[in-house]
Structure formats: C-alpha cells, structure tokens
Write a structure and sequence with these properties.
mainly alpha, about 160 residues
Amino acid sequence: MCSNDAVHILEIIEYIALFYICIIDIRKKIIPDRGFIILVIIGLLKGMINTNIEGYFLGMCVYPMPLIILYILEDYFKKELIGFGDIKLMMGIGGNMGYKSLAEVVKFYHVVYFIAGITVILFMLYAKYKAKKAEYIPFAPFLATGFIMRVLNIQII
C-alpha cells in the first residue's frame, strides 16, 4: 500500500470521526473523548507517514490557544463561553492540520468565526422571532466546517 493511500484512508476515518463528534455535540451537548482520541491518533499517524511529527505537535499546541484564552476569560465574565471539549477537539484538529505558519492559523480561525458569527446571528433572530431565550449553540460543527474548508482550500474571505 502506498503511503498516499494510507493517508487517504486516515482522512476518511478522520471525517467520519468529525461527523460523529458534531452529531453528539448537537444532540447531547458534549464532545466525546472517543472521537477526540481517534483524531489525535490519526493526526499522529499522518505526521509519521508524512515525516512531520514536529508539525503535528506544534499544531496540537498552537491551534487551541485562542480557545484556551476564551476558557480562561470565563472566570472574568462569569459566563460559560466555551467548553473544554471544544478545546480538546481543537487539539485533535490542530494535530491533523499540522502547523505550517501563523497565517494558516489565522485563516482557519477567520473561517470558523465567520461561519459561527453568521449562524449565531440567524439563530438569535430566530429565537427573538419565536420569543424564546437563546440557548446553547454547539461549537464543534463550526470547528469541523472550518477544518474541512481549510483542508479543501475553500476561501470565503
């Protein structure tokens, strides 16, 4: 089996794991450890196949940093901004993307926050129209969508 074929098989498993994580986050409002562990293992295997272990570990450390800052700010705002499961998911996604440059990290977060912002505005307008209080909005689908758009090199901004 060619190393390229192995990477493609790992990417298929990776997308299935992301889909599983998104469904669980939407239904149960939790990110399962099983999905996170699968993403970490796949990222490590891809890093070994591509001989880029440093990029794997740097990606796991750099990509979740903005979310860690939001998690720390929860104490200041006295409000839940983001769950720790989202940080774990971002570690798995960062390991799979690998660290190339800071510009790549910024592009990724631009896509994620752009999609999340539009969706939240629509959700809040819907909640206002239905006279309901805005509730929990899962963040995993936005992270997964941003990851897929960066992998496929789809540019919206």
